[in-house]
Amino acid sequence: MNAQDVFAVKGSRSRFLVLISTTVVVVTLTALGVTHHRGHSSESSPAPVTATTSASPTDPTDLPGLPTTDIFGNRLELPSDPAGEPLPQDPTSRSDPSQPNYLTAAPAHLQWQRGWGGAALPVSGSDGPTSIEAGMASGFADTPQGAALAACDALARAFAAPEDVWRNVVRDRYIGGGEPLVDRIAQSRAETPNAATYLVVPEGIRILPDYRPDFAVVQIAVRADSGWAYGNWPMVWHEGDWRVRVPDDIESLWEPAVPLSSLIDFGSWKGTAS
Q: Which among 134, 135, 154, 156 is positioned nearest to 146, based on CA atoms?
């Protein structure tokens, strides 16, 4: 099991993979959460377009309520609280388990909200979260979509939330790492102080077919310097919510991501209509 490096600067001691130049940024969200399961890549599809970033995404501090973007131009809603705002829930709008795209379909009314430092925080109107309190989201549905939302949320909050929040997130939303994981993430945060900028909207998401109501492996695909890369997030249903299942060897969370030549088997989770 391994989890990956989503944002760090190439050459830093941690393996967070963010390849940055003065005019082009290619983010490899190989952050925390990939297992050693090697997924398959399918037939080729057009190469991804890198983002030119002569300026940072819009600073929303003087534009409350107006949408902005991540560094690749993906839409981010602007909540009044940088911890994010949950949406009203309609469980009847959840994905149909009988449909062939059940393990790749995005949840209903999916939004990506701009959190601390520009991090993309996912919320939906069907699969949670139902609550965001003290900087932590909870109440994800016991569905594949709920597991994927919880995985993306746990990563973003662990690396973007302020000091008085992120440690509580890791202790509550990550199962099995204990204080050594808290210390290791603290080290990575110190090595990559602007990590939140690179917590972008994923290029694709899918849940592996061995999904069960108490276990899911969520694959999150992001742009890489050549094509895409993905990480596997093992998620367990514990005490009424989805949490990241941390491996015994926490250093495996910093292993390189799995290269991917196509997104054909992934679902698009860029956001859905309100």
A: 154
Using DSSP, state whether 35 is helix, strand or coil: coil
Question: Could you report the per-residue pLDDT of 189-247, keeping only the tens digit for each?
Answer: 998 888 899 899 999 999 999 999 999 999 999 988 788 989 889 999 999 999 999 99
Closest CA to 181 of 166, 199, 165: 166
pTM above 0.85, yes or no: no
Q: What is the per-residue DSSP string for 199-260? A: -PPPSEEEE-TT-BTTEEEEEEEEE-SSSEEEEEEEEEEETTEEEEE--SSGGGGGSPPEEE
Contact 206, 265 (CB under 8 A): yes
With a CB cutoff of 8 Å and minimum separation 6, the contacts of 234 are 1, 33, 35, 215, 216, 217, 244, 245
Alpha carbons 238 and 244: distance in angstroms, whole number: 10
How far is 268 from 274, CA to CA, in rounded Å?
A: 16
Residue with tokens 């130049």: 21
For 169, the token pair is 């997130």
N- to C-terminal Cα separation, the chain? 36
The domain limits of the chain are 18-260
pLDDT at 59: 52
Burial class (CB in 10 A: 0-12, 13-18, 19+), 46: exposed
Distance CA 99, CA 258 (A): 28
